[in-house]
Structure formats: structure tokens, C-alpha cells
């Protein structure tokens, strides 16, 4: 695997690297401007850099390290990319358009250790961590598929993996995505979604970042939660509530509770009432998502009326709640589906259907 890539660097580390090669430190600023502001994908067109330096950097510090090995576009404008890294590992990232907003959904690990029972990615388990540069690179790849007149506005760490189980790389990537020298996405437009690692949440609270924290709760009590998220066996909801309250006190940012509605499993009236009690114990809002069925898994998407009834109970109980629209239903939209299908077919999928879908 290539040892280094441009997205692994901050202005300081890049300047230090260039200094070792006898280059003035201002070259770091020039290179980062080309890549982050002007969208250069290689060193070829960096006209204010000496030709010999461009060539040397192309050989030792590639800008992009991934190949886009599949692309699917949905009729609703959602675009999903499968990136293949130089060690053969793959990552999924998605561009989700919504009005003026363009959101990148990116991954923090290859595979996922959490193994939520309803999720395609859980099946294969964790393969390896992604580096900070590989996390940033996904956001840049997604930025590049936004329409020419649209700007990437939001980044959510909701793809494959548990961000807080890859803490340093995740936070470093957040900083690059947020930085004036980097992607310049406002901290409030960045969301880290975690299954809930209380220690990680407390640590994140001290980072002085104004990012949104989303906790994937998916169940209103420990017993059901442990069945749905086996990895969370040792993490009680009480502990999560405490950590979420620390996060709010330190950042002033309300916490989002993600709740995926699985038909007949966690979508009953009693679950809504129990969930309301949990939600009211912290400054939070609840994001409801109707499950996208995954081939080979026994879970069902609840009927729209059942989901609405669930939401109405939460509202009656004084909980601020939204129903997230499912996007990209005509492509392999839920996390892990494209990767899984690729792995089982062993082919690169760029089908007429997926291409036509985006037009
Ligand atoms: S839903 Fe998210 S946390 Fe759960 S297994 Fe899938 S990728 Fe991992």
C-alpha cells in the first residue's frame, strides 16, 4: 500500500515534508489550494509548482489513492460511489441531494465491528480502520460528483463503521473537512453518528468542535437494544444519556437520537412511549428512519401509517421528531449493500439502470 497520500496531511505536516525535500514551506499552501479550493485531482496542472517537484510528488504523495470502482445514481439524484483502495479494501460513500443541500455520507472503517442485526455491513465484521486521509478522500470524491452549480454543504459520518472506534482518524478528518485550508464545511454541518461509545462521546465533547452528535439508539430499553445491536452489550442507555448530557453541556449542541423503525420489532406504541422517556432525559431530537429491507435479512420496512403513528406518540409526549426520507431506494442505498453485492458478484457494477437512474 502507498505509505502516504496528500489527504493525510495538515498544512504543517505537508510543509515539514516539503522542507525535508528542500522546498520552501509556502509550497504546502499552494498545493492545498490547488486540491481543496480548485479541485485539482493530480499535480499535472499545478502550474506554479516546478515540474520536477510535480513529478516527484506524483510518485510519492498521490493526491487520490482510491479508484472509483462503481457508481450508482438513483432517480432521486442520490449518487453512491464504491472506492477501492490500493490494498483492495473498499469503501462506500454517498452524495444525497435535498433542495439546495448536498450531503456526503462517508465511512470511517472498512466493514463494521458493530454488527447491527438489520445491516448488510454488519455481516462481514470489521476489516480494518480507514486513515484520516481516506476518510477525507471520500468527502472529496463525493464533492466532485455534485452538479457543477451545486456545493457540498454537509458531511455526515454515517457510512460504514463506528467513528468513535477509529477516534483519532475521525477527528483529524473532521478538522480537515472543517478547516479554512481544507474543505471549509461549517462544523455545524458535520455530523458524527455513533452507536454510542460513552468514553468517546466525552472525549469528543472536549475537542471544542461544534459538530452534531447523533446516537444510533434504535431501541428504547437495554434488553431490546442488545438484541438489535449486539456490540452494545456492555453499553447501557443510562450511560449514553449521561455522556450525551456532557456533550450538550460542553458544546451547547442538541443531540440527535437516530431510531431505525423495524416492522414489528421496535415500532410499537409502547416503544414510542418508552423512547419519549429516554429522549426527555437529555436535550435531544429524534430522527426516525423507516428501514430499507436488505436481501437475505428477515427485517421488514414498517407501513407508512405505523411509522406516522409512532411519530405522533413521540410528539404528543413533547419530543421533537423528524421522519427521515429514504433516499436512493432504487439503488443499493442502505450502508453496505453496494459493497456486499460487489463482493458476491466479484464484478464492477456500472449498470445501464444505475446510470440511467441519475439522468
Ligand atoms: S448500521 Fe452502522 S453501526 Fe450498525 S452494523 Fe451497519 S454500519 Fe455498523
Write a concise keyword list for the protein shown above:
359 residues, alpha/beta, DNA polymerase, domain 1, ten-stranded mixed beta sheet, two-stranded antiparallel ribbon, 12 helices, 12 strands, elongated, disordered C terminus, binds iron/sulfur cluster
Overview of this protein structure:
- The structure is a single chain.
- By secondary structure, the protein is an alpha/beta fold.
- The chain has two domains: 6-60, DNA polymerase, domain 1; 67-357, Aldolase class I (TIM Barrel).
- 35% of the residues lie in helices and 18% in strands.
- It contains twelve helices and twelve strands.
- The protein has helices at 11-20, 26-37, 51-60, 132-145, 167-178, 198-205, 222-228, 237-251, 269-279, 304-316, 337-345, 352-357; strands spanning 67-73, 79-84, 90-98, 101-105, 109-111, 126-129, 154-157, 190-194, 212-216, 255-261, 284-290, 321-324.
- It has a ten-stranded mixed β-sheet. A two-stranded antiparallel sheet has the order 5-6.
- Helix 4 (132-145) packs across helix 5 (167-178) and helix 9 (269-279) packs across helix 10 (304-316).
- The structure holds iron/sulfur cluster.
- Iron/sulfur cluster is lined by residues 112, 114-116, 119, 121-122, 160, 162, 195, 335.
Amino acid at each position: 500500500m502507498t505509505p502516504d497520500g496528500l489527504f493525510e496531511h495538515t498544512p504543517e505536516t505537508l510543509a515539514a515534508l516539503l522542507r525535508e525535500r528542500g522546498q520552501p514551506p509556502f509550497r504546502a499552501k499552494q498545493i492545498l489550494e490547488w486540491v481543496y479550493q480548485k479541485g485539482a485531482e493530480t499535480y499535472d496542472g499545478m502550474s506554479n509548482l516546478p515540474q520536477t517537484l510535480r513529478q516527484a510528488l506524483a510518485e510519492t504523495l498521490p493526491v487520490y489513492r482510491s479508484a472509483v470502482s462503481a457508481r450508482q445514481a438513483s432517480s432521486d439524484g442520490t449518487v453512491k460511489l464504491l472506492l477501492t483502495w490500493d490494498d483492495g479494501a473498499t469503501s462506500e460513500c454517498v452524495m444525497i441531494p435535498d433542495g439546495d443541500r448536498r450531503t456526503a455520507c462517508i465511512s470511517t472503517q472498512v466493514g463494521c465491528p458493530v454488527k447491527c442485526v438489520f445491516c448488510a455491513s454488519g455481516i462481514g465484521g470489521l476489516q480494518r480502520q480507514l486513515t484520516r486521509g481516506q476518510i477525507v478522500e471520500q468527502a472529496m470524491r463525493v464533492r466532485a460528483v455534485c452538479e457543477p452549480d451545486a456545493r457540498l454543504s454537509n458531511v455526515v459520518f454515517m457510512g460504514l463503521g463506528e467513528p468513535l472506534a477509529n477516534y483519532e482518524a475521525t477527528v483529524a478528518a473532521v478538522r480537515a473537512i472543517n478547516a479554512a485550508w481544507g474543505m471549509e464545511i461549517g462544523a455545524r454541518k458535520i455530523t458524527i453518528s455513533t452507536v454510542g461509545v460513552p468514553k468517546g462521546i466525552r472525549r469528543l465533547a472536549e475537542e471544542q468542535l461544534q459538530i452534531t452528535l447523533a446516537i444510533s439508539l434504535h431501541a428504547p430499553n437495554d434488553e431490546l437494544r442488545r438484541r438489535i445491536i449486539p456490540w452494545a452489550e456492555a453499553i447501557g442507555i443510562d450511560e449514553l444519556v449521561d455522556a450525551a448530557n456532557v456533550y450538550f453541556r460542553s458544546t451547547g449542541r442538541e443531540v440527535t437520537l437516530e431510531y431505525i423503525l423495524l416492522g414489528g420489532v421496535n415500532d410499537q406504541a409502547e416503544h414510542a412511549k418508552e423512547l419519549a422517556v429516554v429522549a426527555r432525559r437529555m436535550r435531544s431530537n429524534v430522527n426516525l428512519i423507516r428501514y430499507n429491507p436488505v436481501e437475505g435479512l428477515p427485517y421488514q420496512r414498517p407501513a407508512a401509517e405505523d411509522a406516522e403513528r409512532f411519530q405522533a406518540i413521540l410528539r404528543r409526549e413533547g419530543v421533537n421528531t423528524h421522519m427521515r426520507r429514504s433516499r436512493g431506494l432504487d439503488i443499493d442505498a442502505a450502508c453496505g449493500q453496494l459493497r456486499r453485492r460487489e463482493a458476491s458478484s466479484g464484478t464492477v457494477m456500472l449498470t445501464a439502470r444505475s446510470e440511467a437512474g441519475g439522468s
